[in-house]
Each structure stands twice: as structure tokens, then as C-alpha cells.
Design goal:
Layout lengths: L2 E9 L2 H5 L1 H16 L6 E7 L5 E7 L3 E7 L4 E9 L7 H15 L3 E10 L6 E3 L5 E3 L2 E9 L4 E7 L3 E6 L2 E5 L3 H8 L8 E6 L4 H7 L5 E6 L2 H10 L1 H4 L7 E2 L2 E5 L2 H11 L5 E5 L11 H17 L5 E8 L3 H12 L5 E10 L4 E10 L1
Helix pairs in contact: 2-3, 4-5, 8-9
Family: Belongs to the spermidine/spermine synthase family.
Keywords: Polyamine biosynthesis, Transferase
GO molecular function: spermine synthase activity
Length: about 350
């Protein structure tokens, strides 16, 4: 069973909300239109706010609750929520309801969000790092566990095969090879050394090993991610996660940031360093601690790269230009002399074009 939540919003002239007579008329108009499609609509609470707005709560048949809210800015919202496996209204009925309310109250703008299915055993909604909510055709939840580090899920979808989800954020699907390919930047890795920060899904490691590198070190903090990707996402990782030590690679279960620090102290070098950890924040104003971490990783990585060595990183989607600009600023302010290039690719299950950077130590 689930909650099915329909959201509608409208814009009217502000004086309609702040004028008591006009506001009362608006209440009646919305109530009339909604009551025609929601059986048994009964007003429970009416709050007239000191700011000039209002908030009204209704109950109805079939365990349904409805709220109206008017803000002094002229924004009006309607929320209809019922409990059960069947929607109170089908999608077309919701669209038609939006049209009727918009016409009745004389709104110059209206929008309907089709019913959200909340509380189901199989969750269809996941976040992206650039603050979008995506709905997938999820067929089943294959794995679900909260580890000491994060909430790890593997789900199977109609469109993208299996998807790795971390803390509710979409991470990687079986149809996202273009992500790994673009992160690798078209380089020739034969005979080279590489360090992967994160990368627990094994996709990057798998593709690097196909090019006969000298040695690849991967550092992933959450062994559960490795274990479940090895079990359920072999289309991504192949057999490279079957053992932690190979002829030319090693998987370390540990803190990638600490490994970087230790590597600087011990004088290690790598031809390539891949950042395959958390995405950067959506703008310079968000999560300065994470931005500071990105800065520290960049600086430590430059200490581990020889001249001509490269730092390869995914960053963010094209719809977050401030984040991309902030990353470029951090690179340009590095003490080491560098040059940078970028590339982008449409990642199927992200439903967006993602941006990647290649930073070369001069």
C-alpha cells in the first residue's frame, strides 16, 4: 500500500489572497471544483494567516486528505493525498482538474504534478547530485542495506537494467558505459600506473585493465558496495572484483583520502589519478566542507603526479554551471602549474549531460 500524492499550484494576483472578500471567494471556487472530483470533501480546519495568506485542511472518502494554501505573493497550492493501491484520480483526471481550477479562479499560471507514489516497498524515486528527482520503472529491489558508511541499494529497472543507489542517490546503471568511457578521456593506459579514488562499482577498474596497464590501485571505503556489485552488477565490473589482488591491480578497502595523504608522505607517484567519489556540490554556496575536500584531493593528487601526469574527474551535470565554474576555479588556483580540458556525455540513466575534467600537471 502507499500514499498517492497529487500536487497542483497556481498563480493569481496577490490582492486576491490579501483581500478578505476575494480570498473567501477563491476558497469557495477551489472547494467547488475539487469537491466535484473528490467525494465527501469536508472542511476540517481553516487558518487565516496574519501575513494575509490562508491554509485549509479537508478530509474526504477513501482515506483522502486535501489541503489548500494561499500565499500573499499570489501563489496557491492544492495537495490531494489518498491511501491505497489505486489512485483517487488517474493522470488525465489530474490534468483536467488543473485546467478547471485555473479557469475557475482566473489564474494566469497553473501546474499539476501527477500522483507521486510514496511509501511503497519498491521505491521508484531517486535523487541526482544536481538536485533532480528522477522516477524509474523499478521492477524490484535486489539489495538494500545500511552500512557504517551509507545506504546501499541495487534495484532492477525496465529501462536501464540494474542500478547502484547510494544514500538515495542514483550512482551507476548497466546502461551507463559512456560514463566510464568519458571519465577515461580517450587516453592510452598501456604500461601506465593509475590510482582510483572510490570506484567501488568496478566499472573503471574493469575498463582500465583491458588496456594492460602497469598497475592500478583502487581504494574504496565500503566493502559492501564491492561485494554487491561483484554479485549483481557484473555487466559493469566483469570479474575484476572477484579478488582484491591481481597481477597488475590491487583493491584496498579503506579511506581514499587517507590513502592520498599516506602516499604523499611515502613519495608514491601515479601516471593517472581518477576521482570517482562523491559528486561536487551543486554550487559554491553549498557544502563548503565538501568543496574543501575536493580542493585537498586536487592538491594532494598534484603531489603524486609526475610532469605530464593527469587527474581525471567527473564533476556535475551541465545544468549546474556554478559548480563547474567553482571546480575550474579550484584547479586554476592550484599551487602546481596545470592545464585543464573538459568533455561531456549524455549518461542514459542520469537523463542528463554530465561533465568531466582532465587536469594535466605541467
Amino acid at each position: 500500500m502507499s500514499f498517492n500524492t497529487t500536487l497542483l499550484d497556481f498563480s493569481v494576483a496577490p490582492e486576491i489572497i490579501t483581500n478578505p472578500v476575494a480570498s473567501a471567494t477563491l476558497h469557495q471556487q477551489v472547494e467547488e471544483v475539487v469537491g466535484a472530483v473528490v467525494p465527501g470533501l469536508t472542511r476540517l480546519i481553516e487558518d487565516l494567516l496574519p501575513s494575509g495568506g490562508f491554509h485549509m485542511t479537508y478530509t474526504a472518502e477513501n482515506e483522502t486528505f486535501v489541503t489548500f494554501r494561499g500565499h500573499r505573493s499570489g501563489l496557491v497550492s492544492v495537495q490531494i493525498e489518498n491511501y491505497g493501491e489505486t489512485f483517487l484520480m488517474e493522470n488525465r483526471a489530474v490534468v483536467e482538474l488543473e485546467k478547471r481550477i485555473r479557469a475557475k479562479i482566473g489564474a494566469h499560471r497553473g501546474k499539476a504534478i501527477l500522483p507521486l507514489k510514496r511509501g511503497r516497498d519498491i521505491d521508484s524515486y531517486f535523487y541526482t547530485s544536481d538536485e533532480r528527482l528522477l522516477e524509474y520503472g523499478v521492477l524490484e529491489t535486489i539489495f538494500d542495506e545500511v552500512t557504517p558508511y551509507q545506504h546501499v541499494q541495487v534495484v532492477r529497472t525496465r529501462d536501464f537494467g540494474k542500478i547502484l543507489v547510494l544514500d538515495g542517490f542514483h550512482n551507476m546503471s548497466e546502461k551507463d558505459f559512456i560514463y566510464t568511457e568519458t571519465l577515461m578521456g580517450g587516453e592510452n593506459y598501456e604500461g601506465k600506473t593509475a590510482l582510483i579514488l572510490g570506484g567501488g562499482d568496478g566499472g573503471l577498474l574493469c575498463e582500465l585493465l583491458k588496456q594492460n596497464p602497469k598497475f592500478v590501485t583502487m581504494v574504496e571505503i565500503d566493502e559492501v558496495v564491492i561485494r554487491e556489485c561483484r554479485k549483481h552488477l557484473r555487466a559493469i565490473c566483469g570479474d575484476c572484483l572477484d579478488k582484491f589482488d591481481g597481477d597488475n591491480y590491487k583493491i584496498i578497502v579503506g579511506d581514499a583520502f587517507q590513502y592520498l595523504k599516506d602516499s604523499v608522505q611515502e613519495g608514491r607517484t601515479f601516471d593517472y589519478i581518477f576521482y570517482d567519489l562523491s559528486d561536487v556540490p551543486v554550487s559554491p554556496r553549498h557544502d563548503r566542507d565538501l568543496w574543501n575536500m575536493v580542493k585537498d584531493v586536487l592538491q594532494d593528487s598534484m603531489s603524486l603526479l609526475p610532469a605530464g601526469g593527469k587527474y581525471m574527474s567527473h564533476v556535475m551535470g551541465v545544468n549546474c554551471p556554478e559548480a563547474l565554474e567553482e571546480f575550474e576555479r579550484l584547479v586554476d588556483e592550484l599551487p602546481a602549474k596545470t592545464s585543464r580540458t573538459s568533455s561531456s556525455a549524455y549518461v542514459p540513466s542520469f537523463m542528463e549531460t554530465w561533465v568531466f575534467y582532465q587536469v594535466t600537471k605541467c
